[in-house]
Every structure is written in C-alpha cells, then in structure tokens.
Design brief:
27-stranded antiparallel sheet, 1 helix, 359 residues, single chain
Length: 359
C-alpha cells in the first residue's frame, strides 16, 4: 500500500522513526512530493522534486529518490550531489548502500576535494564507486582529473584515489599535462601519485614531451618539491641540438624549464652547433653532466673513459677542422649562439686533429 504523506506532524513522526538508534540518522530537509509504502521487507520512501536529505553528516540532493529501509539502500537520480566535509560528489544517478557505506554512481561522475589551503582537486569519469568508510574513490571510462596545486591535468581509462592515504594510480593509457596544454606531457602504462611526498612514479613505455625536448624510458620518478626527474631503463633524451642515451638520467628543472641533466653509466651524446642540423658531433663517457640555458647546451663535463668527435665546418671567420680524442675528463663550453667556445681534455689523452691546408 502506498500513501501520500501530508502534514508536518506525520512527516516529523516518520523522520523520528527512521532515525531511531541509527548512527547514520536520516533527516529529510525537503521534497516536493513524498510517498510511503509498507512491504514485508520494510518501508519504502519515494521522494520526488527538489529532494534534499541527510544521512548523518552526509548531505544528499537530487530530483528523485527511493529510500529502502529494509536493505538500507537509497537510490537517487537526476542532478545528484553529495556533500561531506571537504568532499563534493555529483552524478546523474547514485545508489547508496548504508551498509557498508558505499556509493555506486553513473553518468559523468565527479568527485571534488577542497583542501585546507583553499585549492581544488577533482576526478571524473563515466562511472564511479566511492567507499565512504575507507574514503576511496574508483572511476573508469573517459577519466579526467585536475590538481590546482600542481597545475596539472590527467586522463586515462581507469583511476583509483585513496584520499585518506594521499595516494592515487591511473592505468589504461594514462597521460598527464603540467601547466598549459603545451608545457609538459607525460604518458606511460601506469602512473602513481604520492601526495605527502609530492611524487609521481610512471612505469613502462614512459614518454615525456614538451616544446623544448622529448624523453622516453622504462621508469620515471618525478619529485615535484625538488623539480627533479629520474629516468631509469635505457632512457633517451632529445631536443633540437642534442640526442643523449645512458642507463639512467637525472633531470633538474626550474619552473618546468630544463636546467641540468646528469647522465649515468654508458653515456653517449650526439650534438650539433646549430638548431635542427645533423648531430654529427658526439661524446661518449661513463658519466656526463650537462647544463642548459634557454633550450641550448651551455656546457658539459664528461668523466670516465671519455672519447669524442668534433667537426667544425668551414665558414666565414671559421676554419675547418676535425678533432677526436680519448681521455679521462672532457669539459666543453658553448656561447649564446651554441658555438663551441672552449674544449679541454685531461687524463691520458690520445687525440687526432685534422686541419684544411690551403697552401
């Protein structure tokens, strides 16, 4: 039997009855229409129009709601929103299982978190599950995310966010973009975020690209506090002036602009003195440290079993020569036009110099 509840006394009595001895007390704030049905399995409360109610401290809103007292389930549809402390959830539809306090959502689900510092984070997808007891959020299909602190956007096919632990991971073609859409993009098979350490870990098929450079490797760790990236697994780095390979890279940034690179173990760098020209010059060493300025190599130092080849083409005010040598340490500096200004080698040097003879 279904009854239309009218009158404040009956409505108030119903709310008291449902809230009795329940730590997640039900409190109805408003509904344009309210229907109640008594079934052997328990009472059913049907709400229609500008629905607004609470379960404990959690606030629910929507166009329609069906409250099943027996199985402890609440179903909402149409412009659904859920609020609790710093948490804000929206969806087209929602099923709330009071035991074990889990929300199943569908239709462009979005979870938004406002931090104590006044910044915002959100994650959205076509479907989602929020475990209120564990404070975890899982979403899948056309996933998008944003972090105002890091000024970063993310996308993938499946994501998990443990708000209590400050941890999240992305799988199924994850990609992140830092800054504007053309500043820095990272993609990999899987990405993990650690909020407390402000750390990103990307694993397998890692690719990083920006307007100034591109890099790839098997493994990446990025420390946001230090603006430092560690590439492991035969990484390769390339820009318009150089291509570098090694077993491990350490890159340092300032305001997302590359400032320094440390190449470790089995290093090889091919470079040119002009942007976009063939990178015929090369340096090979155990370790190489490169400093950058405005997307160009400012200087580098190579140490340990160093060998190099340098070709200078003949031009106006520039003589032709080829210089190749082996040694223990090689230092080089370049001017603002990326022209070689100084090259100095030390430690058991063996070299060859070729000049053009105009006589």
């Amino acid at each position: 039997m279904k009854k239309i509840i009218a009158g404040s006394l009956l409505l108030f009595s119903l709310i008291l009855l449902w809230a009795k001895d329940d730590p997640q007390k039900f409190r109805l704030v408003h509904s344009d229409k309210l229907y109640m049905s008594n079934l052997p399995t328990g009472q059913i409360l049907e709400l229609n129009g500008r629905v607004h109610f609470f379960y404990g401290d959690t606030e629910f809103k929507g166009d329609r709601a069906l409250i099943l007292d027996g199985p402890k389930i609440a179903r909402l549809s149409g412009n659904v929103s859920v609020e609790n402390d710093s948490l804000h959830l929206v969806a087209d539809s929602l099923a709330y299982y009071r035991i074990p306090r889990v929300l199943n959502m569908g239709g462009r689900v979005q979870l938004t978190q406002d931090t104590k510092e006044g910044t915002t984070r959100w994650m959205q997808g076509d479907y989602g599950i929020y475990d209120q007891a564990k404070d975890t959020f899982t979403t899948w299909s056309r996933v998008r995310a944003y972090d105002q602190d890091e000024n970063g956007y993310a996308s993938c096919g499946y994501a998990f966010w443990d708000r209590a632990a400050g941890y999240a991971y992305l799988i199924e073609k994850p990609s992140i973009t830092a800054g504007t859409t053309d500043t820095l993009t990272v993609s990999a098979d899987k990405m993990e975020f650690f909020d407390g350490e402000r750390k990103l870990i990307a694993t397998f098929n890692v690719e990083v690209s920006s307007n100034e450079y591109r890099a790839n490797s098997d493994f990446l760790i990025y420390f946001a506090e230090e603006e430092k990236a560690v590439f492991i697994g035969e990484p390769e780095f390339t820009n318009d002036f150089a291509t570098a390979n090694a077993q491990e890279f350490h890159l340092w940034f300032k305001e997302r602009e590359l400032r320094k690179a440390a190449l470790m173990d089995s290093c090889r760098v091919h470079f040119s003195q002009e942007e976009g020209k063939p990178k015929d010059n090369w340096v090979q060493a155990k370790d190489i440290v490169i400093n950058f300025a405005s997307d160009r190599i400012e200087d580098f130092e190579a140490t340990g079993e160093v060998s190099y080849y340098f070709l200078q083409e003949e031009k106006e005010k520039q003589d032709f020569f080829i210089n190749s040598a082996v040694g223990q340490v090689l230092k080089a500096k370049f001017d603002a036009d990326n022209k070689l200004k100084l090259m100095d080698m030390s430690g058991r040097i063996h070299g060859r110099y070729v000049f053009k003879n105009d006589s």
